[in-house]
Amino acid sequence: MRPEPHPDGHLVQEGPYRWVRHPMYGAVLLLAAGAATWLANALSVVLWLALLVVLLAKASLEKQWLLKHYPQYANYRLRTWRLLPWIY
User: Fold this and answer.
1) Could you give the 3-state DSSP secondary structure of residue 81?
2) Type and span of the H or E element at 34
């Protein structure tokens, strides 16, 4: 589950990646937030916060790898949101 760039890959900037750099992470967080709200207990909130920390750390590692592998990633970061469009 390491998000390293594939040697023969390319930087995707179409579809949901047009607006957000990590659409899958954002979707998982929204789904987990809905589940935590539905369960409405302290454990679910703590687990959601732990998931948030893990995904933000993973996104940070991915950023470092992508900056090294794709020079255009620096510009891409300037015009896209990290997880949720118009929020973060």
Assistant:
1) strand
2) helix 23-39
